[in-house]
Amino acid sequence: MKTILYIIQKEFKQIFRNKGMLPIIFVLPLLQLVILSNAATFEVKNIKFGYIDNDHTSTSRALVEKFNASTYFNVLTDFPSEALASSAMLKGEVDVLLQIPQYFERDLQKEKQNSLGVTINAIDGAAAGVENVYVTQIVQRFNQNIKVDLLQVSDKQIQPITIETIPLFWYNKTLNYKTFMVPGILVLLVTMITLFLSGMNIVREKEIGTLEQINVTPIKKSQFIIGKLFPFWVIGMGLLTVGLILAKVIFNVPMLGSLPLMYLYTSIYILVILGIGLFISNFTDTQQQAMFIAWFFTVIFILMSGLFTPIESMPKWAQTLTEFNPIRYFVEVMRMVMLKGSGFNDILPQLLKTALYAFIMNGLAVWSYKKTN
Amino acid sequence: MKRFIGFIKKEFYHIFRDRRSLFILFGMPIAQIMLFGFAITNEINNVDIAVLDHSKDATTKEIINKISASKYFSINQFIDRESDIETIFKKGKVKAVLNFEEGFSKSLIKDHTATIQIITDATDPNTANTISNYVNAILQQYQKGLHKDITIAYQIVPQTRMVYNPELKSVYMFVPGVMTIILMLVSAMMTSISITREKELGTMEILLVSPIKPIQVIVGKVFPYIFLSIINAIVIVVLSIFIFKMPVQGSLFLLAFESVLFIITALALGILISTISATQQTAMMISLMGLMLPVILLSGFIFPISSMPLPLQVISNIIPAKWFIIIIKGIMLKGVGLQYLWKETLILVGMTIFFIGLSVKKYKIRLE
Q1: CATH number at residue A105
Q2: Which of A41, A176, A343 minimises the CB distance to B307?
Q3: Across the interface, do B297 and A39 touch by the CB < 8 Å criterion?
Q4: Total structural domains in chain A?
Q5: CB atoms within 10 A of CB B365
Q6: From CA A254, how far away is CA A299, in angstroms rounded?
Q7: With contacts defined as CB-CB under 8 Å, which chain B residues touch A92?
């Protein structure tokens, strides 16, 4: 026990002595949490909108005015010609383009029906879909208005059947994206710091040559590993704590569930990550290799965790792969406990899988660590 | 010059001797682009939903069938009580519950109106909102089918044309992003590590007392990585064209030129990182912790920059990846040439010069 304490002491001293690293471990992640959480939103607003009005009548102007009044479209440009408009589209200055044909008003009155050209930059397919919905909604509302203004004939004799829908958004009534992203980004930062630090740690001793010195001492394998990993476990838990405080104070993220449950889960989760880090450390010779591998897995873990893009939309085989992704479970648990107030029984499956993962990873790591080369 | 070539040779030997790193270096981008190209999408389909049907009559059955037939939803379970909603949401099994009021058919016939509640788990606001929109769209279709004979007077029909990506594939959005992330991180990380490594191992001292000039040391260090990154870029572009059917509307030559430019920008950033960090550990933490999330989040790779708050839109301008993503999308999807992309290109050139200038200033010829 005493030996472990000394190793832990040594590790902490080494961490705090490296002045270049301290801000990276403690300040950078929190700074990113505060700043980047604002960036992650799928909301589509401030749409760059332009129009070509070939009609110049009160109807066409009224239609453009509708777009002007909408909060989604805020940059309005009137293009005199098609060529200028398409060049602006190529430059990326406009994403949605409305083309009002000549004789728009006249044809509308004569034929009661008319079409309208809408061009949408669809490189971001999801955003283009939403933009299309906005445009359609505005045009539909406009349709209803001209019915009243121009027609003044009510078709009330046939009352159409309407099914009314009432959308209810539980747990996040205002659809605030930050409450969704902050817990997720916190998960990422805790994971990245603990994985990178533990992944580099032992291999660093190997590369510098100090590992050999430790190997010839009577320190046991298990003592060494516990002593090495414990400081990072503490750092991870510390980051979580500060991150949660920031989430509450700055972003006012609701915390409906129990804090002890979150800490219980995280304490097991960090073990998984440390196990992976140690495992990587054992199988590499240089810090460079260790970092490449750590980076490789982090990018995959992050992008397949359901943090930014929903897991249900992935193909089946990819969904199966995410079962092996520890970040996925952590993101799920944090969101469930914080935002929905899920209890112990609700997160039991995730908890068990994570515990099993921790057991296997650490088992493998200890097994593969050899004191002799 | 001969000395310099000898130095470059040494660097190549270093790299090729480390088989494991080399394998990761080339295997990684391929594995990532394949995985993400197929798996990552922000489309929403196959969402699990539950139904709470208080009336269980012909109309509600018909509507439920319509909904389960759509590719967006799969009905996971039927529940009987309002109190079950909370339970299944907390377990995270379903994302939405459709709640049909009692006597749905009857009130539809009598009062011409009936109500469905769409209760969504809005912890994910985007999915919640989309689910609600999709259900509405399906119901509207259903209602249209009910009164076909009524023609509505005065109607403007928007004819929407989706340009550059008519099938709304998310691959078109993500492949340029993944390519950028890989080139950025691999290049920045590799150079920063390889220079600090010499510092940490003490061999930098030997290089500094040798007759090779400091600038030659740096260029010699970076050169092999330019070469490796270009191979990486070629592999990624080939994969995206042949496997993901990404078009290259513009000039392939321009694409190559811009990629090389971006690689050099990233390498210059790597050099800068190496001049300010003393150990490999610091260099790696800066290039990983410091670059990974900003590059993913602020480059427009996943989240649209125009929707971000204004201060972040301003910050996003200093992320080189943002400009490169605009350039790749421009060349590959829009088919534009340099006359549209000169601004972005100049910004990348400017950034490169800035990074190199700063590193030359910070580069210490003497060791403490």
Answers
A1: 3.40.1710.10
A2: A41
A3: yes
A4: 2
A5: 8
A6: 28
A7: 326, 330
Tokens of A332: 């799920």
Q: Output the pLDDT for position A160.
A: 60
* A325 min Cα distance to partner chain B (Å): 14
Interface check for B62 against chain A (CB to CB < 8 A): the answer is no
| Domain of residue A65, residue span | 47-151
**A72 shares its domain with A100:** yes
A273–chain B nearest CA distance, Å: 16
Give the count of alpha carbons within 13 A of B121, CB side only. Answer: 24
- Predicted pLDDT of residue A152: 47
User: Which residue in A98, A116, A99 sits closest to A107, CA to CA?
Assistant: A116
A350, A277: one domain: yes
Claim to verify: residue A313 and residue A352 sit in the same structural domain? yes
Chain A contacts of B163, Cβ < 8 Å? 89, 119-122
Amino acid at A288: Q
Cβ–Cβ contact A303 with B under 8 A: yes
Alpha helices, H only, B18-124:
19-39, 58-69, 83-91, 104-111
The answer to whether A57 contacts chain B (CB < 8 Å) is no
Q: Give yes or no for a contact between B52 and B99, defined as CB atoms under 8 angstroms apart.
A: yes
- Which residues in A lie closer than 8 A to residue B25 (C-beta atoms)? 292
| Architecture category of domain B47-146 in CATH | 3-Layer(aba) Sandwich (3.40)
- A259 shares its domain with A182: yes
Query: Are residues A213 and A102 part of one domain?
Result: no
In A, which residues are within 8 Å of B312 by CB distance? Answer: 35, 38-39
pLDDT per residue, tens digit, chain A (373 aa), is: 788 888 888 888 888 887 878 888 888 888 888 888 888 777 787 888 888 888 888 888 888 888 888 888 876 778 888 888 888 888 778 888 888 888 888 888 777 777 888 888 888 877 888 888 888 888 877 877 766 555 444 444 455 666 777 777 787 777 778 888 888 889 988 998 899 888 888 888 888 888 888 888 888 888 888 888 889 999 999 999 999 999 888 888 888 888 999 999 999 999 999 999 988 888 888 888 888 888 888 888 888 888 888 887 788 888 888 889 999 999 888 888 888 888 888 888 889 999 999 999 988 888 888 766 5
Greatest mean pLDDT among A39-43, A81-85, B255-259, B357-361 lies in B255-259
Residue type, B261: L
Asked whether the beta carbons of B162 and A122 are under 8 A apart, the reply is: yes
Every domain of chain B and the residues it spans = 24-40+169-362, 47-146
B308·A39 Cβ contact <8 A: yes
**C-alpha of B81 from chain center:** 41
CA of B301, closest CA in chain A: separation in Å?
A: 10
Cβ contact B307–A117 (<8 Å): no
Query: Which of B158, B181, B284 is facing A287, going by the closest CB pair?
Result: B284
Q: Are residues A276 and A305 in the same domain?
A: yes
Whether residue A210 sits in one domain with residue A72: no
Q: Is the pLDDT of residue B261 over 90?
A: yes
Q: What residues in B contact A143, CB-CB < 8 Å?
A: 152, 154-156
B110: chain A residues, CB-CB within 8 Å: none
Q: How far is CA A285 from the centre of its chain?
A: 33
pLDDT, tens only, B71-112: 888 888 888 888 888 888 877 778 888 888 888 888 888 887
Contact B306 A47 (CB under 8 A): yes
Is the Cβ pair B118, A117 closer than 8 Å?
Answer: no
Mean pLDDT over B319-337 rounds to 90
Q: Which residues of chain A does B286 touch, with a Cβ-Cβ cutoff of 8 Å?
A: 24
Strand order in the sheet with A47-53: A73-78, A47-53, A96-100, A113-121, B155-163
B152: confidence class by pLDDT, cuts 50, 70, 90:
low
Residues A22 and A84 in one domain: no
DSSP β-bridge partners for residue B156: A114
Distance of CA A364 to the CA centre of its chain: 31
Q: What letter represents residue B56's amino acid?
A: K
Measured between CB atoms, which of A169, A313, A315 is closest to B122?
A169
Does B141 touch chain A if contact means CB atoms closer than 8 Å? no
